[in-house]
Amino acid sequence: MFLTHRPTTAEVERFLTQARDLPLSYEPVGIARDIPTGFRLDVAEAVVGKGEADFARAQDALRHWRQFELGWVELFPPNAPAEPGTFVAVLVHHGVLWSLNGCRVVYSVGDESSFGFAYGTLTNHAEMGEELFQVSINRESDEVTYLIRAASKPRALLARIGYPYVRFCQARFRRDSLTAMRRAIGNPLIRG
């Protein structure tokens, strides 16, 4: 949903209420973990910390969607649980336009060395696809990494027409999200 103004709280709440009845805009669930046919796959990964304390902070940051604290992207509701079935709206400021995009958390991943979840786009999202957010600790090096793995393709007419700009925004999101995670766990200068 594209807007010429920042949506009000009431507009975002209406959007989220309507999103609960919408299906995913793609199939099958799990395409971010595979090599999806017909979708563009983007992967970004970086070291965001070192040791158990940083790994615990990275997991907490992911649970609280801190990877979305970018200034030009916002998540609603901001305290949404990062667990399967949760609906969220991603608000993106594009300079002169705003887009409001519906997603649902579709699965979680993890074990003693990793934690993460993926959300899938709903039919009211400008794109179609799935995005996985995961933090892991390497038990040998003690390095904590943050991974974004996204499978996507444009769905809305404006996204198809403006595909080069969409790709720019996706790359910017990955870059800024890595920085946000470093900041969230207190290591803004670590480069990976």
Task: Tell me what the structure shows.
The chain is built from four helices and eight strands. It has 192 residues and is of the alpha+beta class. The chain has a single domain (2-184), classed as START domain (Alpha-D-Glucose-1,6-Bisphosphate, Chain A, domain 4, 2-Layer Sandwich), CATH 3.30.530.20. Strands 1, 2, 3, 4, 5, 6, 7 and 8 form an eight-stranded antiparallel beta sheet that branches.
What keywords describe this structure?
192 residues, alpha+beta, Alpha-D-Glucose-1,6-Bisphosphate, Chain A, domain 4, 8-stranded antiparallel beta sheet, 26% helix, globular
Please specify the SSE layout and strand pairing:
Layout: E1 2-3, H1 9-19, E2 40-50, H2 52-63, E3 73-76, E4 87-93, E5 98-111, E6 114-121, E7 127-137, E8 143-154, H3 157-161, H4 163-184
Antiparallel strand pairs: 1-5, 2-8, 3-4, 4-5, 5-6, 6-7, 7-8
